[in-house]
Design goal:
Blueprint lengths: L1 H21 L5 H21 L2 H19 L10 E4 L5 H13 L2 E6 L5 H9 L5 E4 L5 H14 L7 E4 L15 H29 L2 E5 L12 H20 L6 E5 L12 H14 L2 H7 L1 H15 L7 H12 L6 E2 L5 H10 L2 H11 L21
Parallel strand pairs: 1-2, 1-4, 2-3, 4-5, 5-6, 6-7
């Protein structure tokens, strides 16, 4: 009987723990500490107390530890945050959520007349400020700085959420035009770097937070995401460097590495069909002959099929952004999304050949380029 009672309690606690970990509502170090204390508590209760009292105390201890493990949250009142890429996706949802919590939100969009900008005006409070900004234009970044500075002069800027990102090429590195690598770097790396440096004096004044949405494609070699992945790899390393350098100033830096979510045009087949046709039209004849049009068509088809499985619930990422902004001890990295723990386990602990096979099995598995395919033998062989 005793074994069944304590076993049921452990099943309940373990299920709750795993659920909160999967939703990025609990950090792994806190979860392990939670688990260790529960083990000790159950051992003492089982050894020293009768079953009803021991089970009740274990259950009460588990609930109390659950609250403690979430960590202390900081007050929101009087805090201002700047979020990029709020036209759609994570940026738009984060702007709405943080505004509803009471933050003073500065939300940048590419187009003030876009559907996303109009939705933000309708859904959010009058305290939310919309501004137009293109991260590839230094003058836009200067205007954003000039807008934010007088409004945050007294308390500083509490948070910068670097969310804006760009990718419009699904192809091997050799097939991806050099201009696509430059555009990805301009938006995802250089633009983010320039904006972060422009706002750093305000962030240092507030001893605030920098939260950056990067990508697992910057940590591991996802097939056909070379341009995007290279820019995100540079971005992640930059933020890790900032985290170390800004620690004496009291500024905490976190990176969000989301799984597969439906954002903006990422799941629009028509968009990717158009980009595929543009790529085909831009390729040199010899390169197109070596790989074959059917090779590029197949890549595009697999990518569109994969993105149909993307999660439409963006709250997991928004919760991670929120925790990074208001947790007293935010994590350096957050991994919101189903199966991310498995992907990173394979990447870090298993041989690279297994990692590559895994990525091809669950993302894109390129067929052989035309030049590498066995030659078809027509007619009879002649001696």
């Amino acid at each position: 009987m005793e074994r069944w009672v304590y076993g049921s309690l452990w099943l309940l606690f373990a299920g709750s723990l795993l659920l909160r970990l999967s939703r990025s509502q609990l950090l792994l170090p806190r979860a392990l500490l939670h688990l260790g204390v529960l083990v000790l508590l159950q051992y003492l209760c089982q050894a020293c107390l009768p079953l009803p009292l021991g089970a009740a105390l274990t259950a009460a201890g588990g609930l109390a530890l659950g609250r403690v493990a979430q960590g202390r949250r900081l007050p929101v009142a009087g805090k201002a945050v700047f979020i990029t890429g709020c036209d759609s996706g994570f940026g738009k949802q984060a702007a709405c959520h943080l505004d509803s919590m009471g933050f003073k939100v500065f939300a940048s969009v590419l187009d003030l007349q876009s559907a996303g900008a109009k939705e933000l005006r309708q859904r959010c409070s009058p305290s939310l400020t919309l501004l137009q900004m293109d991260l590839t234009k230094p003058e836009d970044i200067r205007k954003a700085q000039q807008l934010v500075q007088p409004q945050t002069a007294s308390a500083g800027l509490w948070g910068l959420v670097n969310n804006a990102g760009f990718d419009d090429t699904i192809a091997d590195a050799e097939l991806s035009p050099l201009c696509k690598f430059r555009t990805c770097m301009d938006v995802n790396f250089f633009g983010t770097l320039e904006l972060t440096k422009a706002l750093l004096p305000l962030l240092r004044s507030a001893r605030g937070r920098i939260v950056t949405v990067s990508s697992p494609a910057g940590d591991m070699p996802y097939p056909c995401l070379a341009a995007y992945g290279a820019s995100k790899a540079a971005l992640t390393l930059l933020m890790d460097t900032f985290r170390s350098e800004l620690e004496p100033w009291g500024v905490k830096v976190s990176v969000i590495l989301p799984g597969y979510f439906k954002t903006g045009t990422s799941c629009n087949p028509a968009y990717w069909h158009e980009k595929k046709e543009q790529l085909l039209a831009s390729l040199p004849a010899d390169l197109l002959q070596a790989y074959g049009e059917e090779y590029i068509h197949e890549i595009n088809k697999q990518f569109v099929k994969f993105m149909k499985t993307a999660n439409e619930d963006l709250s997991l990422v928004v919760n991670s952004i929120t925790d990074a902004l208001i947790s007293a001890s935010p994590a350096a990295r957050y991994y919101p999304g189903a199966g991310m723990w498995l992907i990173y386990f394979i990447h870090h602990y298993l041989p690279s050949i297994i990692r590559d096979l895994f990525l091809k099995a669950f993302f894109i598995n390129q067929k052989l380029p035309r030049a590498l395919q066995p030659k078809q033998q027509n007619g009879l062989k002649h001696e």
